[in-house]
Amino acid sequence: MTTSMNDPRTAGWTMQADDGFVGLVGPFWTRMVGEHPAYGFLAEPRHANLLNVVQGGMLMTFADRALGLEAWKAAGDTPCVTLQFNTQFIAAAPIGAFVEVEPRVIRMTRSMVFLEGQILADGTLVASAQGIWKILRQRS
Question: Which domains, ranges and CATH numbers included, belong to the chain?
Fold first, then answer.
């Protein structure tokens, strides 16, 4: 993504419906980039911090959801929960930018999924995120 957009649908993004917490800070969007899913959101004034750029907690919420959804998929659509989540902030994400991440599964075991993703705002790297998700298996 190299320019801000007002309607992500024009660039092939699909809105993800969510009635929970993410519905309060979203909407979040998704689309395929080659064989990998990408997730995005349009940075609105309500996402601003005191410096009038995207609040770091918003970037973390977004990345946790996107990487977490990919953990579920990697685990065969089995629920997963975040065990550890790390974020490194690299640059400010401006209000009005389209922010996106392409989660990547780094490793998977029988009980955990390890993921990472780079967060871009209008194509500029603004943060990096890594995490570990626990696969919740039903006991027989």
Answer: 23-135 (3.10.129.10)
